[in-house]
Amino acid sequence: MTRRAYIYFIATFLLGIVVGVAGTLFFAWNTGMWHRRPTKERIVRRLSRDLNLSAGQVEQLKQIMDDSQKQMRELRKQAGPQFDAIREEGHERIRKILSPEQLQKFNELVRRREERRKRGRAP
């Protein structure tokens, strides 16, 4: 091979790497995979900056957010058992249509999903 062919080969390889990395970054950013979850502190800081809130307004905003979070937690506690019952009923209906081999795999999938859900990483 000539020297020019080696240069073209290396340039093509490097260009492929650059395009692949750029595509991955673009995909991850646009799908939200690399966005940080909003926290109360970030929301308060952003609203305070964007709306030019006074110190009193910031304190009121924090109280409102605390109250809202408390109400949402209570609602989740009340509705949680209903969601669990619907989920389990769906699982039972699925189990009825599966073969024994499929049932074993399905039960393992459900077990792993429940473990993730209990750890707080619900799919």
Task: Using brief descriptors, characterize the structure shown.
4 helices, mainly alpha, single chain, 123 residues, 82% helix
Describe the structure.
The chain has 123 residues and is mainly α. The protein has a domain at 1-35. 82% of the residues lie in helices and 0% in strands. The protein has helices at 3-30, 40-51, 55-96, 100-118. The protein is flat. The N and C termini lie far apart (52 Å).
**Whole-number radius of gyration?**
26 Å
Strand element count: 0
| Beta-strand residue fraction | under 5%
Sequence of secondary-structure elements: HHHH
Whole-number mean pLDDT: 87
Distance between the termini: 52 Å
Q: What is the count of helical runs?
A: 4
Assembly state of the chains shown = single chain
Largest sheet: none
**Helix fraction by DSSP (H/I, runs of at least 4):** over 70%
Q: State the shape.
A: flat
Q: Which residue ranges are poorly predicted, with pLDDT under 50 across at least 5 consecutive positions?
A: none
Structural class: mainly alpha
